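Question thread 4412

I'm putting together a teaching handout and wanted feedback from people who do this every day. The idea is simple: show students a protein as raw sequence, then show them the structure tokens that encode its fold, then repeat with a second protein so they can compare. Below is the first pair exactly as I plan to print it.
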Amino acid sequence: MEEEEYNLLKKYRDDQTFAVIGAAMAVHRELGPGTLYKADFVCYGGLIIEMKTVETITDVHRSQLIHYLKATKIKKGLLINFKNKSLQYERFANDY
């Protein structure tokens, strides 16, 4: 890291960034490694819809939806891929 970049980062350290990093660490400890962003849709108050446009659904995509289900305690999820000629989808159930 360049000295100028280091000084700039040091200048902007504050309680807010430390609080966010601490919260992220707590989530990571609770849910484990994986992706935890915002789900595409929550329908009917109890169904998470995660949409993709990829060649094929992978374990990374599955893990993402599983994390959404765990984090929200929602029981059902659909992973839908629009990339191919035939719609690809997978159903998930949350008993965590």
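The second pair follows. I'd like the answer to focus on this one:
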Amino acid sequence: MDEISELRATQAITKLSFRYVRGVDRADGDALESAFTPDAVIDYGFMKVPVAAMAGAMRRGVESPTVVSHHLIGNVEVIFRRSACHGASDV
């Protein structure tokens, strides 16, 4: 992959990270789902949750919100290997 393509992919992955935390902070299930493929599973380290289940829980929680959430993104890293890449960031 050439350098320009890597920069574009890195920016796209970074934007997905932003969309994810915005969805979580706003309890916006649609925004959360839009940051993942439909079959994705979110791995929080201590639990794994299908995106659809997490988005559904957020939608139900909007009816009676009890938690305020604020996330910051840092240390975005994207590693390119042949035809695939892996992105990680600290939230």
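Top answer:
Good format. For the second protein you could add a caption like this: The chain is about 45% helix and 25% strand. The chain has a mean pLDDT of 84.
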